[in-house]
Amino acid sequence: MSVMEWPHDLLSLDDWTELPETREFHVEVVEGVLSVSPRPLLAHQWAVIRLGYWLNERLPAEYSAWSEVEVVIAEAPLTVRVPDVVVARTKVMESSPARLQAGDVRMVVEVLSEGTKRTDRVTKFSEYAEAGIDHYWIVDLDPPVSMITYRLVDEDYEDFGEHSGVAKLEFAGAELTIDLNALTTPRAQRP
Hints:
By secondary structure, this protein is an alpha+beta fold. The chain has a domain at 41-69 and 80-183: tt1808, chain A (Alpha-Beta Complex), CATH 3.90.1570.10. The protein is built from 4 helices and 13 strands.
């Protein structure tokens, strides 16, 4: 276990930027305070990689999906989230920014894991809505694999359906069909 100097004040964006990178933990900032949790289990990571790749292959060309991108939700007090999958305009992602501003993000997908379920369903739900992120999908890998999709309507998220098995979804005018069970099975999502 490595030792680092813990901050004694609420973090600013400059403070956040100066923190050492770690692959051991999942680190975010919530209202200026570090939030540290264990890295997700392999099944979670596998589902995130598959979902990100699957979305990237099927989204309209002007959008791209990326995994583990820092998103600045608010600057004062600082809140930086690192969602499992982020969808933003391709031209923004091609510029390779260090992090995205919430205004650049069209969709966030969180895959539930032990220790983050309440955060994903409650805290991030309200943060992403307040930040104006249009779509929020929450994937639950517990059998049967399911996903709840939300869309921003009048500054609040409305439930646009709970899905299991094969889900038929819409994003930016494109119809997306995803086999949710394939997120956890070998050789999944092949055409």
